[in-house]
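seq:
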Amino acid sequence: MDKKKICVLLLEDEAAHAEAIRRGLESYDDVFNLQVVGTLKEYREHIAANPPDIAFIGYDIAGW
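struct:
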């Protein structure tokens, strides 16, 4: 029986940071399905169309 992958949405505007996270999850490709967006607009659109199981937002994007 195939396991359902955990859908992860990453909002990260720094390409190098997004790539580092992607590389970190590569060895868990059978567990996670990572989608990366770079803007709040893309994030909102993705959430509306394809709600993830979990989402991570880059610290600087949140405006803190």
